[in-house]
Sequence to fold (170 residues):
Amino acid sequence: MRDEPGTPVAPAGSPAGATGPRPEPLRFFGTTWLHHDRGYTPRRIAVSAGSLAAAAVSCLVLRIAYQGLRLAAVGSFVTLLMVVMFAICSALAFRHTWDGFTRRPDPDRQASLRGLLAVGFVGSLLAYFFRSLTEAPGEKLHREEYDTARAQYENRTTRRSGNPSKKRRA
Fold:
């Protein structure tokens, strides 16, 4: 059974009996982003290289599609339309993916942009590449949420500590 993030469970590497919010795992990184341990740096290097390689292969596939249009002799307008469509969709997908690393996306907007993100997959891959050069993609957002949850948990536990029946009455 998987606990939801923020529920009181013992985080990995914590002393026995410790409770508190648990860090949310990131794709490819798990919870190594929290303390940058257990292979965090090699994973970041692998994710950077993998996303750049996937973007390069994607561009190769798009080039083959472009050559197919040229061979079919569909005309310069259709060819230009395809190139402009992929450029715009890639730019929008880059921006949307980049923003998703710093704040939670709206699920309704995410669903409505699914087609655009599929067409602009090169932009999403490039955003993933550039973000993984500095941190695990989404690490900043998850760290802020975890720190907030941890602070709230600490406030709740310190307020309730002690036996209320032994409190001195003034």
Summary: The chain has a mean pLDDT of 84.
